[in-house]
User: What shape does this take?
Amino acid sequence: MATQLKCTHCGDWGEDPNSCASCGTPRDVHSTFANQGNPERFKAFEMPAMEWNTNKKIPTWKRSIINTGKALNWMVLAVGGAIAWMAYWVAV
Assistant: This one.
């Protein structure tokens, strides 16, 4: 069964992923759907690791505030995880 795509210009449905069969308007492919054939695209949930802000376009004082906030975030998560871990072992 082929996927039916709706044309944003004329509203007609068709199977061609590149253009509308009725009016010939090229289909806008959203970046989410751009790489459907690549098996590496379909991954389980992945959470990117924290990265320090090294963008040279942002002033140093702003980058230091951003990076301090990221470090504090990790500290809060670590403390919260430790409390949850202790609560689990107290309950067991």
Notes: The radius of gyration is 24 Å.
